[in-house]
Protein 1
Amino acid sequence: MKLYDLSQPLNQEAPFWPLYPPFEVKFIKRKAEHGVNAQYIMTSNHMGTHLDAPLHFVTNGKTIDQIPLTWLYGPGIIVDVSEVGDLGIYTKEIVEKNAREAGGVKDGDILILFTGWSRYAWYQKPKPAGTADEERYIHMHPGPTRPFCDYLLEKKIHIWGVDAVSTDHPMNLPIGRFLPRVSTKVRAAAVKKFGEENLAKLFPDEDYQLTHNILFPKDCIHIENLGGQIEEVLGKKKAVRTTIGCFPWLFKGGEAAFARTVAFVE
């Protein structure tokens, strides 16, 4: 068996969710002075590879420590949906078509979607030789609409994840709706892609933060900012069936937690 790390690295250079505080780290002891090196960190939960618990969007919802271990490790599938591109919409039909190569999505799977956006993540090689592009990563990632949420519930999926900053489409987030400076640019790109007349149909007001508000009350939660060796697992395939583990720290009362996510490939 070979293990593939699907996690992004995390330190003070990692971008943080808009309007949230950044990751801060400093040494509070040094070996030369104190005989030991020790660090102190202060951070929000919603950056780097992390798992959201239902409590993030559901008052009195499950906390990280209450998520069953059986949800966090088991059979799953990684599916390439990168064809949808900037501000693209991935759908049940795209996932089902691409997953067919690996036997399809099964009820109760851990579902990982490769959008291609991990290529633009902060830890990649910088331009011009590399692909890192923080603005594209945060502003232009793909996402779903309401029918895809219905599909996840039909498949009895408890945990799914994406290699993007959010499972929600930017037009269902502050990024496309009201974030200063950014939302005007993102909305203009969405108008160009979908047409002004279609925006309200695709992204109605009630679908704000759709994947969080619709799915979390049903105990369907997600991992955001995946990446790492995800392309290596896929190779040239559109889908790979494997065993997947998502390992957050046992955060009592936590509404989210950093999570090492691993593909166990035979």
Protein 2
Amino acid sequence: MADQNEKTKTDGTDEAGKAAEAATTEPQPSPLSDNGESEASRQHPWTEQSIDIPDGPIEETLSFETYPADQFEHDELGFDDDEAFDLLRSMLLQRRFENRCRQMYQRQKISGFLHLYIGQEAVSTGSVNAIRLGEDSIITAYRDHGMGLAMGIDPEDGMSELFGKRTGCSKGKGGSMHFFDHDRKMMGGHGIVGAHIPLSTGIAFAEKYQGTDNVCLCFFGDGAMHQGAFREACNLAGIYDLPIVFICENNQYAMGTAVDRAFAKPDLFKHGYNFDFPCSLASGMDVFSVNKAVGDHIESYAREGQPSMLEVRTYRYQGHSITDPADYRAEGELDERQSEDAIVRLQQYLINHDLATEDEIDALDDEVKQEVSDALDAADAADFPDEEAIYDDVYSQDDYPFIA
């Protein structure tokens, strides 16, 4: 009997032996770990932070790149003359589209919430023209019409979405705050303040995990930086060296409180330093400044596995939403800001550099207005989704395995 027991132990055929063997299995290395080594096999201690505090004071020298307006020209950024004209077309399309959105909301063609992007068109246009469209991802908050149009969403598809029609870019079920285009890698507008920022970190994690060199641009407003989700997402991006650019569209007021009244450190780009990010500040009233800044952050940092932060200072001409009268502005403030309008600035640039005449710009504007008018007619004539469509696109599978 003793021999039999000994045999059982040495063969390891009993269930306890199997469980013990499973419990001592070496952990598999993470695809993101250095040199494919597991944490258990590394020679350094679990923490390398010293408890021996150095004599102070500790001094650091910080530098932040800036991208002021009127500092860059189209040819040095790689745009030919026709492409510079196309930038104006994109910005005019966004402006005219949203002017009509305001009208349609007042006529009750558009329901729910409506947050307009008017005044910020240089941010979307400059940024989109710095990415590899269809490969790099963009994700943003609920002020998303301009970004969607800049990425190539058809105005008809966008207006149909606002009207809740089945031909909309989100099949009429997303509305104003949820423009989405999978093929262009427009990963959606999102309605909860700051909630999409961790999603952007997940997108960047997936790109690194899959071994691509694609990047993610995450856009959010100044108000979203108060959310803990922003800091959690930045921290994870820094830990994992993710290919992402966090871009704060600082339009000065969040929902209605001026930045310098809401932040102890109102230079928002400096907040990225807390995560050891390269940080920069750009003018959102100049499409070339935005393009240069975003391009630098993509190529110098994100594609090299270095997350970064960019603050783009801009200004929304409307209230927070369509129902906000914006009484918190100082008298004359809006007129002063509109004198710096990015569209007017680009129009004057094209004229000064003999890239377009005033008549050509007027003709372009008329063309864009007609395109938006046609989009309105098509959206108005389209059908609403069938009631059965409420369950479509909830899960990636064709059936509904999670519905009892």
